[in-house]
Amino acid sequence: MIYFRTFVVVMSVLLGAVAAAAEGTNVAFGAIKADPTLPVEVTADNLDVDQSDGSAEFTGNVLIVQGEMRLSAKRVLVIYNQTQSGIQRLEATGEVVLVNGPDAAEANRADYTIDSGVIVMSGNVLLTQGANALTSDKMTVHLTNGTARMAGRVKTILNTDGNN
Questions:
Q1: Contact, 23 vs 57, CB < 8 A?
Q2: What DSSP string describes 34-78?
Q3: What is the value of pTM for the model shown?
Q4: pLDDT tens digits, residue range 64-80?
Q5: DSSP H or E stretch at residue 9
Q6: Is CATH 2.60.450.10 the right assignment for the domain spanning 25-156?
Q7: Domain boundaries, the chain
């Protein structure tokens, strides 16, 4: 009878985790909070500037560095604010990788709104935190408070042996 109760408790916990995952999952992201007011350093193989719409397109081995945060992609479109005095947002596509401290995430696309410090990653998102991994359709990272929310078919493996 004790085994049956243990089984029921374990299944309840697991089913609760699955239900929470279906609604979206909040996770920590990055060992330190990032500062979106720091300068943005961009390195790439190529740069094309469009004066008419105030954008700059970096292609080929693009690396964005802002403090401890690193974002790499095949292509990054930089969109300046209306006065062209600062960056409004970055649109990264193609094998996007975001690293902040010990955490890393991969996706097809990332949109980084500089003023708010929010990065929205979409398309085959994979978040790796040490030995743990989560996948989802979308992840919203709040750099200023070091949190992220995963949504859309969130999936992870729950280890039951206690050797995490």
A1: no
A2: --TTS--EEE-SEEEEETTTTEEEEEEEEEEEETTEEEEEEEEEE
A3: 0.78
A4: 999 889 999 999 999 88
A5: helix 2-23
A6: yes
A7: 25-156
